[in-house]
Amino acid sequence: MIVLDHTAVIALCRGHRPLAGLAVVEVDDPAQRAHVPALCMVAASLELPGATAHAGALPGLEFLPLDFAATAAVESLTAGGVAWAFAHAVYAAASGAVEGQVLTTTPAAYDGTGIWVVDVGKP
Question: How far is CA 28 from CA 3, 25, 32, 61, 97, in A?
Answer without folding.
Answer: 18, 10, 8, 11, 19
